[in-house]
């Protein structure tokens, strides 16, 4: 097969190129190569040193790079005695290495300890340190790094001078750069940029073909080196241009970049050995569709049978009174249903949520802590009247959660946990909590044993009394109904038809009645099973469960109930985690007591109560539904038949009744939003103290500021879109010029040259269809192979055209128009056949390949 070149005509794999730049000095090219080698070694080694924080002498390291690069560069240019050079080099290197083995070993232990520090700092995993002598740390590490850079320099020099081992050299440099990312550190700009530029140079300078002619190889090397230098200069110019155009401030303003960086950081920091082993254990082999446990991060239908192996996931210590009523440990929450999974918010919903938070960030309203905020506001009221009945009764205590085998990626915590008191965690929108760094244990404070006398509270509370939280909650409530009642635009047609309510029907039935209806429907029409079978390809998870299979476990019931309620206009979302109650207690003595706080009629009392320890096993894994109760927040609702967690119904009913009371209070309350007094300048001037601006005016100013920021972000997005369009347009223009140049060249050449161009195209066609033998030099050398393996090629026609090719290539006379027509006919026949057999992507690639070269 002939090789691809940019200039000249291919004749029996020999490349004939006219050197139009004979004035180039080879010394200049060698100097560029040497500089590229030095920069490549310097950038790779500097990233490693900065990442680990090695106390090496950088002056000695840099001098060693210059000297080592110079020696290896000279040895590679000297073409004789390769074996002798290699033998004595390895010999001297080995002898020196052995003579300094103690210092090298000490330096290695010190670097190991630095790595252990980085692992602990970023991953939170502590390893044992090695015994090392730190009195000569700088000298020993410098020696070790110099010994390391010698083979590294040799590898990079060979790849740039001899054009060998390029892939291995690139991989080694990439691994050195990747070390920083593994430990969550972004390399310095100068190192990363130098690495990219030298890698481009190394790859491009190695593109010299495989010509056996020494003069042609030298010439191709010079051309490739010049091209590599040009590409590197273009890369530097583009980088500097982008740096001038896109400032760091503009870069940081691009919201998507910040989100991606945050997600990468979270993913890396939460990566555990368990995640890696679990990824292998989750691979479903043919005939094996079982899964251990029940937590799949929102994935649905991938397993046909769930198995439990009695493996302990968590060890929980909590007050016995809170365990008795049953506890949900909330982990993953899904918002968007896709047919076979529950995903987090869409991009639009995330943006809307962030705008909502920006508006109310100064009011202390946090949807992830919403119920706790309502409880805090309630128990902080001091003007509660005396009553013969308790208006509410709430307990607050602590829970200690120790991870055994559970995934540390998620924080599994009970409902009504005060997340503000937990360090090192962050909220994923309004969905769930993720640890910023993996921990093996957590201490959380939470409310439990929650009961309310709603009639008494309704007479006591006024809508104005809770106005601060209610204003923010109302905006969040609008977001909730817009986001969490959405169903997929396509699919679920039968579910939408069966469960969508009219406005009149929805107004006549409250949330509790709709929940009871869905429970009754599921209990009557489905059956609980841990072996429902795998979801058939192309089927919707929920509709297959409801209307065809009728068998499922908790994930089926939670998903179906969430979507059925959404169709009825009730905001819901899908939750995965663990559940347990008093049956799971393994130890309730010798643990000591715990002091809890009980809030009753505005009074806080402290009691010492017994604790219990619970072993949360894999069979405690569960999925359930969260329902949004207006004015209150998200509450768990159980839909799986036979579950021991149905005692949450009372709490949901209490909250729902409280919601109805608050809705009535809101209707009775005067509309304060219309009362917006305008500040009078004369009055403000007469008073000694300035009159504070009304709250509504401040809010308007905030909205204007938010609008201005949104406009700036919008302008940045437009700028990046224009930049992308500009780059894309430049690429299209370059492609068009290449195609036009190629067509013009073919149209204005002799018949012989045009015939040879056609044979080049035939080679490309055959190569796209099936590789030709790499040992063959040209199409003529593959005649027998083509006749044997390319049956669609007319052998008689092919043989005639091959004779024409030899005549065009070696003959002294020009071929006739009829002979050129025969070659064109062969090309068309092969093109039609090959094109019809290729995939869409290969067709596009073939058309571009034929046009530009």
From TrEMBL:
Keywords: Membrane, Transmembrane, Transmembrane helix. Residues 546-641 form the Transglutaminase-like domain. The keyword Membrane applies. The keyword Membrane applies. The chain crosses the membrane at residues 31-53, 59-78, 83-101, 141-158, 165-186, 192-208, 228-246, 717-737. InterPro entries: Bact_TGase-like, Papain-like_cys_pep_sf, Transglutaminase-like. SMART domains: TGc. Pfam families: Transglut_core (PF01841). SUPFAM superfamilies: Cysteine proteinases. Residues 663-706 are annotated as: Disordered. This is Transglutaminase domain-containing protein.
